Amino acid sequence: MSEVVQKSKLAKQAAQKMGNLTTEQKNAALLLMADALVTEQQAIIEANAKDLQRGKELGTSSSLLDRLALNESRIAGIAEGLRQIAELPDPIGDTLESFDRPNGLKVRKLRVPLGVIGIIYEARPNVTVDAAGLCLKTGNAVVLRGGSSALFSNEKIVEVLHGALSRSAIPVDALQLILSPDRSSVDEMLKLNGLIDVLIPRGGHSLIQNVVKNASVPVIETGAGVCHTFIDESAQLDMAIRIGINAKAQRPSVCNSMETLLVHERMAEKHLQAIAEAFSAANVELRGDDQARTLVPTMHVAEEEDWRTEYGDYILSIKVVKDLDEALLHIREYGTMHSECIVTENADHAERFLQEVDAAAVYHNASTRFTDGFEFGFGAEIGISTQKLHARGPMGLPALTSTKYRVYGNGQIRE
Fold first, then answer.
1. 118 contact partners, CB below 8 Å, separation of at least 6
2. Strand order in the sheet with 258-264
3. Percent of the chain with pLDDT over 90
4. Which terminus of the chain faces fewer neighbouring Cβ atoms within 10 Å, N or C?
5. What is the arithmetic mean of pLDDT over 42-68?
């Protein structure tokens, strides 16, 4: 029996017990997990250092190393995410609908756990904790398969979390980590119908598409983030620069960072030089279309592929557009339905943008970096869904539930 099958079977058995746990029992376990992470932070940082060293030896980019790195501050933030999850309302058992039929049947629609959730992700060990916390709070078991670049970090984190769960009412087997770095372990998870109830991929475009195209297990698709900010003609320049710099440079390696800046031609004629200087001062490499390079000749040339690229780095494409219509057209062609922003003082333009842009999150005068479960008050997120079925946007607790109808009768039969 393979590692994947063995651990998924253990998770399935644990999931059958999870539905009987009270909210208080689940919250107590989450708090034990949070405390354990802080208590064992030095051991986690030491394991993480092995992953970072191996990444450097393999020539891993600085942006990916940033995603991988853990320190006391980040571990404290991850632990705080668990504490926030514990404070959030437990959706399990919530009555969504309640109605009585003319024949006397009483019908109740309730939230229930999904069962066993498989998470396939890359070089972000914080996902290990976020996924565990959200899945366990909603009464689900979870099978984690992280990237090989974070293997030491993930193994130590799960060891610490298992130690906390052993002192709680949650079965230790409800949290499983696949240690095999072989690609075959992912392929096996994709076909594990009957043991894994749903898969959630988190990572780059190629990983997500591999899961979406090859899985027979149901998938909740999280998307790549080619996010745009459109600076309209009426935008306040200082605000536009502040929002743009934050969206690109605050943490460029994450999926809600901006990859393309669209600038209204009249704004560009007056202020693109100042905008470009601000980004250059933030160490951002700029790649512009012909019109942008005419105004700022120091920009590199933006090729067609740049408009489709999620850089995850200090690189930004800039396009000058004639008006709002052209900005909307560009986003429709190149956007990934993740997060899009308009900076404008024109209320009509803002409303059109918010209405017409098809994305999980749309912003008026605010950075796309807010598309995040923590920032939305969810405590943490399992991912940001860019699909339209089941869940969309930052996926907190309700997104990890299904529904069940309970029907109460007193002897009714169907005629």
1. 8, 142, 143, 144, 145, 189, 192, 196, 198, 199, 200, 217
2. 300-301, 285-288, 315-321, 258-264, 227-231, 339-343, 361-364
3. 84
4. C
5. 91
Residue 367 gets the label, from left (phi > 0), alpha (psi -120 to 50) or beta, of beta
Indicate if the pLDDT at residue 64 is higher than 90.
no
pLDDT tens string 349-402: 999 999 999 999 999 999 999 998 878 877 667 888 888 888 888 888 999 999
Q: Which two tokens mark 257? A: 């960072």
CA dihedral 340, 344, 349, 353 (to 10 degrees): 10
In angstroms, what is the C-alpha Rg of the chain? 23
Beta strand extents in 273-415 (DSSP E only):
285-288, 300-301, 315-321, 339-343, 361-364, 384-385, 393-394, 401-408
Convert the pLDDT of each residue in 296-305 to its tens digit: 999 999 999 9
Amino acid identity, position 109: K
CA separation for the pair 344, 352 (Å, rounded):
11
Non-local CB neighbours of 90 within 8 Å, separated by 6+ positions: 23, 26, 27, 137, 138, 397
Token output for 347? 């209320």
